[in-house]
Amino acid sequence: MEHTEQMQTTCLHDKHIELGAKMSPFAGFDMPIEYSGIVEEHNAVRHACGIFDVSHMGEVLVTGPQAEEYVNHIFTNDVREMEPGKVQYGMMCHPTGGVVDDLLVYKMGAERFFLVINAANIDKDYAWIEQNAKGYDVTTENQSPRYGQVAIQGPEAEAKVEKLLGLKVADMVFYTSKEDTLQGEPIIVSRTGYTGEDGFEIYASHEVTRWIWDTCVKSGEVLPCGLGCRDTLRFEVGLPLYGHELSDDITPVEAGLSMFCKLDKPEFIGKEVLVEQKANGVSKRVVGIELTDRAIPRNGYEVEANGEVIGTVTTGYNTISTGKSVCMALVDARYGKLGTEVAVRIRKKVFGGVVVKKRFYEKNYKK
């Protein structure tokens, strides 16, 4: 077990302790898993508004005359057509097609890109970004220590951000960002969300992040939410989590994320493998499975068909919004068709199920 003293903490750590959060190690950080309870927090985001501390996430700034060309070289999506203020989701891939990380790319200007990466991968990603920048006229800067970040999510997020923080966000469309000021300091606000609901992310200094948190939580109008419901929320709407549905060994095509890979753009790292997989098919793929029973499939459990092991569960829950026992699993592609009968081995018993769409609950974003 890691000792707490070696664990990193976010700028809101003392706030979580004060609120009596259940804390747990996540990606090297001591993070809040829940406050009032996963079900209550999950439902607050689905029906009202919740706030998450996501200050553990990483931020990398890429600037310079060749910033666009360089980001396009390491990113599966295509940043050339993006207007400043737009945000894109995609992956950085190894030459083998496996995923270094999935990330958001913010185009802040013609020569300025802001990359938001997963907490568990900050060191690995930044090393990858630096290593592949050789030969490009760009400067890369790991800004992760500088920023705190909160995500304010739910159908009431727009109203609460405007009312409580005084930020004008109603005119922002989905997957855009803007630079603004709060408490006299520069901030970045975006409207993306990882919950299947409308919502905003605010990147700010540690001091301003603490002010935002206090203002929202003390108003009693925004519920503090932990990483527990962040996982149940993203899972229900079929969004991947690095290390589960994506990894160094799982390609975007296998994960069913080809729509975020622009295979017709110029060379990018991993392109050849992805083009080949898209053309000739894959041997394994990430699918959704719904069990006929209430048993809960967990990460690592075996998936079977006709008595033989055909894959493993990547994430599973009895979903809070639908009450069904479902999972995402990486399986032999021959069993990946919708409607295919499979089974999941949970401890010593085998539970029947059927392959379904990975989106177990409909997303509810601002159009």
Strands, helices and their partners?
Blueprint: H1 13-18, E1 22-26, E2 29-34, H2 38-47, E3 50-53, E4 58-63, H3 67-74, E5 87-93, E6 99-109, E7 112-117, H4 122-132, E8 139-142, E9 148-153, H5 157-165, E10 177-182, E11 185-190, E12 199-204, H6 206-218, E13 223-225, H7 227-236, H8 271-280, E14 284-291, E15 302-305, E16 308-318, E17 325-332, E18 341-346, E19 349-356
Helix pairs in contact: 2-7
Structural descriptors:
367 residues, alpha+beta, six-stranded mixed β-sheet, 33% strand
What can be said about this structure in brief?
With 367 residues, the chain is of the alpha+beta class.
Strand order of the largest sheet: 10-11-12-9-3-13
**Dominant shape:** globular
Count all strands and give the number.
19
Helix count equals: 8
Mean pLDDT comes to 96
3D structure, described in words:
Strand 18 (341-346) and strand 19 (349-356) form a beta hairpin. The strands form 4 sheets. The chain has a 6-stranded mixed beta sheet, sandwiched between helices. Strands 14-17-16-15-18-19 form a 6-stranded antiparallel barrel. Strands 5-6-7-4-8 form a 5-stranded antiparallel beta sheet, covered by helices on one side. Helix 2 (38-47) crosses helix 7. It is globular and about 65 Å long. The longest helix has 13 residues, at 206-218. The N and C termini lie far apart (45 Å). The chain contains 8 helices and 19 strands. It is an alpha+beta fold and 367 residues long. The mean pLDDT is 96.
